[in-house]
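It is worth pausing here to work through a concrete case rather than discussing structure prediction in the abstract. The textbook approach is simple: state the sequence, then state the predicted structure, then interpret. We follow exactly that order.
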Amino acid sequence: MDFKRFRYLVLVGILYLGITISFNNCTRGSGTAPSSESTHQPVEGLDAVNYFRESVPSTFCGQDGYGYLLRSYLGPECGSCHSMNGGTFPPFGDNDLSKAYSYGRTMGKAKFLELSTNNRFCGPDCNLDTRGEIYQALNQWFDHTDSCN
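Step two, the predicted structure:
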């Protein structure tokens, strides 16, 4: 193997590694316990990312429900990639609620929920468990994306 080809393979390997690491964008959960106003009891073995850290609305619906999910989970855990500046489409985790909400509404419920529990680009610390409070809220929101009626 000649030196040019070797250099090329090394460069491709470094580029691949850089891309792979940059897409592993998960932030670690804070380790805090669920909110005292949480509607779910903690489930043994679930990471803090599965719970809200502040008072929880009674229902997750429409733009207000999405805004809560955006502040609590989608922005912190997905926004580094899924935002207008993040480079990954769709930008459902953008800081601008109206943009994030618009894109969030276009996503299919089944695929979105699947990727929130088993996303190869997200480390194990930000994948949700179906027994957790945030997963249940996402599921409820997808049944009422447009309004609370």
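Step three, interpretation. Helices lie at 3-23, 62-78, 97-106, 109-117, 133-142. Residues 23-39 have pLDDT under 50 and may be disordered.
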